[in-house]
């Protein structure tokens, strides 16, 4: 096997420098529906979702989003605070990270001091930020930290539990010169002017028990305990007295000049300075929302309510009738489990299963579609009760016909974006597993694929006849798999692919890869052992056929390649090979022991390989060169857990579904065209501020491209792989070319067809 040296170090340096300068190649498709916290200025509301932010300017009505493409972490946000004095937004995370955004220029500073503290990692969560005289008091799951908003430096850390122990601090408040902390073990107070607050003895416990919130409002100090009772502080007795009992525990309490706002999961309570209830908003008052509340605030007579699943909702304090959702449109959730692209649309589903294919707890999420008109979210109420949908498949000959696999309920068919029928044991050839008992219905459809004649092939896990086909005339046919599978009722299916010969390749959990061709009604399998297929393990998650008719096999313990899918016809026992590369002069197996979740083949026959915990790899057609290895550390990936990868063959946009959000990478790997009639150049003109490359798209495979200046001097030449090439606007990589018009001469490999394009470069 051909062996080649990888230049990994150079590649990683390039990525880190490249992404620091510009993320023009990346796009984010985040969900902003799960609101973790809100903050406000006089003219804007700021909201933090799971791992992305948005703000709305209440004067201009402009909504701005910020996510990992802009430099945010993909970790889970737990607190948000906007400082009007410094014009900075501080984002706190569950893992202790703080990101400070300078709103004037959008620049971000990652502050990792809390992450680096010698403390257990599960107690670093940031709960609240309070600003006093240029210092943010950061409430954490271990205590309180001072953070100077002018210098961006941390000051003292206060461990205020009994005998200086770590203690969960939920919120702090300043009242009459004292700092008060509501904790899971009492309310504690200390004099703010005391220079020795790192001594736990300086903190006095004035109430016991669990306290969720504490806020100064007007001339009073209020706190809420775990039982949901609002208390008022009495300075004379140095104690709290309960006087309002909420129906639920409080999730959030904050104050403006005129109002105290308390949020529970089902209600928002708004009190005036006399603590009279001015408004109460309940979840059931908001039409088309079944989501619980998480937090809320008031800006200039407008109430903003954060919800768990429906984003940010606003209404006027003076009118309880009209509610407006101001959340940026996106997918329903960030944890997208599977994707399917067409040239004009992207479909997503959110259902999932564990590493060992357990779909419980069952998910009640719908389906989302992204197209030129934006996001269409089809809610669970419309999908006939289909739970845990794990795959989505578009009919290539009719893009209006879409099928979603449910790993519990069967197969859902959609026509023109509308769910039409749920195929199950009552109306189709699908069968429920039976080992639980005859009355329990559980139909675990997963991998599906269309063949060239419009048949939809369907796999169902843990039954005897696991492979079925739905024919265009609506007839179903089953194929018995007992003889090929070691134990059919223990077997789960992953993805499926159909090759040029019509052979179906099925990934399985217990039996490696199973190939099937109905022409001879023949099954064969590739599994472990040197004489039975050479896979590293029998648990195969994904299969992909490339443009050279090789079968790429992703297992839970590494990668294998079957050199030619036609060996299904010619060989009794097919054998897959590892890809051996040289790394530091040592022969190594590419992606050795990696848990591979998906493999996508782009228009230039490169392979995009997703992993369960190591991010995304792009390797050359033969796997010898690792072109990219994207992770959370060197790219806008929000998570190293890659669920699925799909490529738009027309645009080359690579969609990457991670456990923490959907992003895409615009590479050059579009499918080759049949002719040059659609060849085009972008961007054109190239303006001085543009830092990226010029792309020439709509090409034939192996087209010759020559670029010259207006005098005819050659500055660049290449041969395309697939439908797009990139030019870095240099003369053969030596120096940036000058301003002017450049001629692009394109000719097909056989020389029959030619095209001339122009591009203007402005320096």
Automatic annotation (TrEMBL):
<keyword id="KW-0732">Signal</keyword>
<dbReference type="InterPro" id="IPR026444">
    <property type="entry name" value="Secre_tail"/>
</dbReference>
<feature type="domain" description="PorZ N-terminal beta-propeller">
    <location>
        <begin position="45"/>
        <end position="204"/>
    </location>
</feature>
<dbReference type="InterPro" id="IPR048954">
    <property type="entry name" value="PorZ_N"/>
</dbReference>
<feature type="signal peptide">
    <location>
        <begin position="1"/>
        <end position="20"/>
    </location>
</feature>
<dbReference type="InterPro" id="IPR015943">
    <property type="entry name" value="WD40/YVTN_repeat-like_dom_sf"/>
</dbReference>
<dbReference type="InterPro" id="IPR011047">
    <property type="entry name" value="Quinoprotein_ADH-like_sf"/>
</dbReference>
<protein>
    <submittedName>
        <fullName>Secreted protein (Por secretion system target)</fullName>
    </submittedName>
</protein>
<dbReference type="Pfam" id="PF21544">
    <property type="entry name" value="PorZ_N_b_propeller"/>
</dbReference>
């Amino acid at each position: 096997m051909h062996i080649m040296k990888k230049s990994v170090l150079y590649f990683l340096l390039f990525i880190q420098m490249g992404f620091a300068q510009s993320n023009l190649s990346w796009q984010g498709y985040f969900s902003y529906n799960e609101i973790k916290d809100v903050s406000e200025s006089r003219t804007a509301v700021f909201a933090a979702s799971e791992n992305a932010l948005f703000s709305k300017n209440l004067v201009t009505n402009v909504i701005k989003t910020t996510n990992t493409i802009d430099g945010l972490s993909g970790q889970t946000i737990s607190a948000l605070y906007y400082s009007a004095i410094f014009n900075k937004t501080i984002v706190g995370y569950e893992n202790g990270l703080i990101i400070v955004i300078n709103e004037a220029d959008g620049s971000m500073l990652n502050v990792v001091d809390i992450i680096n503290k010698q403390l257990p990692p599960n107690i670093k969560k940031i709960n609240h930020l309070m600003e006093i005289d240029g210092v943010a008091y950061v409430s954490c799951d271990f205590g309180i930290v001072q953070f100077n908003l002018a210098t961006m430096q941390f000051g003292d850390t206060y461990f205020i539990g009994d005998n200086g122990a770590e203690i969960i601090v939920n919120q702090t408040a300043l009242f009459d010169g004292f700092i008060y902390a509501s904790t899971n073990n009492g309310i504690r107070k200390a004099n703010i002017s005391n220079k020795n607050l790192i001594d736990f003895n300086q903190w006095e416990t004035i109430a016991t028990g669990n306290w969720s919130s504490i806020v100064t409002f007007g001339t009073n100090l209020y706190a809420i305990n775990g039982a949901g009772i609002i208390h008022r502080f009495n300075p004379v007795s140095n104690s709290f007295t309960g006087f309002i009992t909420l129906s639920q525990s409080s999730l959030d309490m904050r104050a403006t000049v005129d109002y105290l706002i308390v949020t529970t999961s089902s209600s928002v309570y708004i009190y005036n300075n006399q603590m009279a209830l001015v408004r109460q908003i309940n979840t059931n008052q908001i039409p088309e929302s079944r989501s619980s509340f998480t937090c809320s605030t008031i800006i200039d007579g407008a109430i903003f309510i954060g919800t768990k699943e429906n984003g940010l909702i606003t209404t006027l304090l003076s009118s309880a009738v009209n509610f407006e959702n101001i959340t940026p449109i996106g997918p329903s959730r960030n944890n997208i489990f599977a994707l399917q692209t067409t040239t004009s649309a992207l479909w997503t589903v959110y259902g999932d299963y564990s590493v060992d294919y357990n779909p419980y707890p069952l998910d009640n999420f719908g389906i989302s579609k992204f197209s030129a008109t934006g996001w269409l979210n089809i809610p669970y109420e419309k999908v006939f009760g289909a739970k845990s949908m794990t795959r989505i498949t578009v009919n290539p000959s009719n893009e209006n016909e879409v099928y979603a696999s449910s790993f519990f309920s069967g197969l859902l068919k959609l026509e023109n974006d509308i769910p039409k029928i749920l195929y199950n044991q009552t109306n189709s050839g699908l069968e429920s597993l039976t080992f639980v008992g005859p009355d329990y219905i559980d139909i675990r459809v997963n991998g599906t694929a269309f063949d060239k004649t419009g048949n939809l092939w369907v796999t169902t896990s843990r039954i005897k006849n696991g492979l079925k086909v739905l024919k265009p005339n609506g007839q179903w046919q089953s194929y018995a798999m007992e003889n090929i599978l070691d134990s059919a009722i223990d077997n789960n299916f992953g993805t499926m692919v159909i090759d040029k010969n019509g052979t179906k390749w099925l990934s399985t959990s217990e039996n490696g890869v199973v190939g099937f061709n109905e022409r001879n009604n023949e099954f064969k399998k590739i599994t472990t052992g040197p004489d039975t297929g050479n896979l590293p393990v029998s648990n195969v998650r994904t299969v992909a056929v490339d443009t050279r008719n090789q079968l790429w096999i992703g297992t839970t313990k590494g990668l294998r390649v079957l050199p030619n899918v036609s060996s299904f016809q010619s060989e009794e026992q097919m054998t897959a090979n590892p890809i051996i590369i040289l790394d530091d002069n040592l022969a190594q197996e590419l992606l050795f022991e990696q848990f591979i979740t998906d493999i996508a083949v782009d228009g230039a026959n490169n392979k995009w390989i997703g992993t369960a915990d190591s991010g995304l790899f792009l390797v050359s057609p033969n796997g010898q060169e690792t072109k990219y290895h994207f992770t959370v550390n060197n790219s806008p990936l929000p998570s190293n857990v890659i669920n699925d990868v799909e490529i738009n063959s027309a645009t080359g946009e690579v969609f990457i579904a991670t456990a923490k959000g959907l992003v895409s990478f615009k590479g050059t790997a579009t499918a080759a065209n049949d002719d040059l009639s659609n060849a085009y150049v972008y961007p054109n003109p190239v303006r001085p501020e543009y830092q990226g490359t010029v792309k020439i798209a709509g090409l034939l495979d192996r087209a010759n491209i020559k670029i010259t200046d207006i005098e005819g001097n050659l500055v660049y030449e290449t041969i395309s792989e697939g439908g797009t090439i990139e030019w870095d606007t240099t003369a053969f990589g030596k120096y940036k070319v000058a301003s002017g018009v450049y001629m692009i001469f394109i000719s097909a490999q056989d020389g029959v067809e030619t095209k001339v394009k122009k591009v203007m470069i402005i320096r």
